[in-house]
Structure formats: C-alpha cells, structure tokens
Amino acid sequence: MLRSTFRLAGKKCSQTFDLSPLRHAASTWTSTTAIKFKEYGDPAKVLYQTTEPLPATLDPGNVALRFLASPVNPNDINMVQGIYIVKPPLPAVCGNEGVAEVIGVGSAVKNVKIGDWVIPSINAFGTWQTHAVAPATDILKIEADLPLIQAATVAINPCSAFRMLYDYTSLEEGDVIVQNGANSAVGQAVIQIAAHNKWRTINIIRDRPNKAETVKQLADLGATHVITDADFKNRDVIKQLPLAHLGLNCVGGKAVSDMTKLLQDRATLVTYGGMSMQPMIIPTGAMIFKDLIFCGFWLGKWNMENSTEERIEMLNNVVRLMKEKVLRPPTIEPVLLKDFQTAVKRAQEGFTGAKQVLALDEESLAKIQEEVRAYAQA
C-alpha cells in the first residue's frame, strides 16, 4: 500500500494507492496485442489492432515487459501521420511513452529485475501493446511507488517543462515566464514548477466556451496570469502585464508574434511545438529593437545527446517534485486498448481538457479509474 499526499486546488490531500495487484510478475509470455500502422496517414484509417507471437525464450540481454498504461501524445499522432521527425520502419507499433512491468529478464541483464517498473529510453519504442520483448538497454527503471497516472506520463511532458525552464536562462525569484498552450500537459507542469520556484507566469490559452473553468484550473496550479489569444486585441489588457524573461511556444503562427509583445529585451523564446501547423511569424522589430533570442527544443534530441546517467538524474528530479507534491498528474481519461480509436479521436479534438491514456488490460484500467476518482474527490 502507498500513502500519497498531494496538493489540489490549494488543499492538502491524502489518499491510498494499492499497487500490489499491478506488481505481480508473470512467469510466461506468448503473444502481444498491439496497435500498429503499416502506412502513414489518417490515424482513424491506418491504425489497426493485431495479436502476434513473442519469442518463447529471452536472449541474455533482453527483457520481457507487460505494459500497464500508455498515453496518447501529439507526437504519437504526428508519427502515424508521417509528419514527425521520427519515422520507424513499417509496420510499426504506435506509442512513444508508457510504463511497463518487467516480467522476465535475460541472464546478462543487470539494470532491472522482475517486478520493476520501467519506461522506454528510445524514441518510437511502441508502447501501445500489452507485452514486448526488448533489449534491456532500451528501458530505464523508475520508482514503482508512483501512482500509475504519473508513472505513465513522467517521461515526456514534465521532463520537457523541466529542461526548458532550467536550460535556456537563469531565472530568479519574481522573474516572468510567458507561454502559450498553457493548459497542455507541458504547460501545466511549467506552471507548477514555476510556482514552486516563485517565478511568475503569463499563461495564454485559446478563447473557449469553458474559459472560466480553464482559468480556475490553471490558477489552482499556481498560474499568475491567464489570458486568451483574443486578449491581444485589447491593448489595455496587454499593457497591464509584466514583461517576461523566457517564452515557451508550442503553437506557432501568429501566436509567436503575439508573444513577442510580452517579452523583455534580450529575452529567449523557446519553440517546442507547432500545434497551429503554421510557420512562425516573427516581427522584424522584435528582432532588431528587442534583440530577442529564438531557439528550439526537442526532448528526444536532448535524450540522444546526453548520457543515461544525465537522463536518470533528470527523471529523479521530476519524480522528486512529484513526491514533494509540487507536480500533480495531468487530468486524464483512461481508455482500454481495444477502444484505441476513441482515444485517438478524442486526442485530436479541441478543448477536451484531458489527456487520453490507454490502459493495457482491465486490471490497469481499474487501477487508473481508482486513481482518477481519488484525485477528483480530494
């Protein structure tokens, strides 16, 4: 049993997670049920479910895995569409992120043991499947006393937020960060880490029917200011906001031009996504008279360019923030693997407010639903 205390909407909350049902180790594995694609295109048309055999025995350096939960991230959708930088050999199992339990180890494996929880250490691992056999070098061990929701989503979004906040400028107490896509999982992590360090945030969201609800959600996480893209038409609103030392962009297009109005001289704007699918619009005046710095960030590249030890250190820092109740999990909607099309469709809709997470079996689904109810009731 794990007793977890966390902060939700300004209140200190406690709950108990019984992880034991998810931590037994199976002695055999024969096949995997996976979501694959054999050509690039519309996920609704090219994704399909298949059941295929796995090797009956393990090579010395391999491990057998039972996946527990795997989120549906934008890079998963983009990979299937063929517009992501990573293009695995086809046919391929979809999914870049997820958490699995080790259920078998080869004779030469030293970094993990049966019962450990692990996450992929490579891009395009193929996490939308019930089981896998893979080299032990392709996984990283994580602490198994995290709630399943956090373990499944620890590898990409909070790590991206962590790196961008610490790698591009030195922020001091009271400094300001401006970001668009602020209600995304990365945006929520940015807000929480910033609030923990007493950095102020200006958080831009799309104008929406449930604006008040979204503003409250972000304020509860520690957001200093929340505005919509429509507010840039009101000069009085913009003039009242402080200028930022760091900007984080995941939208692109005109949203970048808007953000430059809220950046101080020689500030840095980091682009880590392009949700609008439009080229960035950078005003000439912002370049000349503000001397702004524009650069890009991709966690996959950071992982490839840095050592395993450095990545483990980053994960340990993020997990520590989770355990210290600085970082709470994103709002999620769990879906069984067989209902993957529903999850993929929801992930592409606007204003859903929740990350889709595939539960790889009924047992994991029940555990995730239990955690979701506990967070909602706290």
TrEMBL record:
Catalysed conversion reaction: a 2,3-saturated acyl-[ACP] + NADP(+) = a (2E)-enoyl-[ACP] + NADPH + H(+)
InterPro entries: ADH-like_C, ADH-like_N, ER, GroES-like_sf, Mito_Enoyl-ACP_Reductase, NAD(P)-bd_dom_sf
Gene Ontology process terms (BP): fatty acid biosynthetic process
Domain of life the protein comes from: Eukaryota
Keyword Oxidoreductase: yes
Catalytic class of the enzyme: oxidoreductase
Record family assignment: Belongs to the zinc-containing alcohol dehydrogenase family. Quinone oxidoreductase subfamily.
Protein name per UniProt: Enoyl-[acyl-carrier-protein] reductase, mitochondrial
Organism: Hypsibius exemplaris
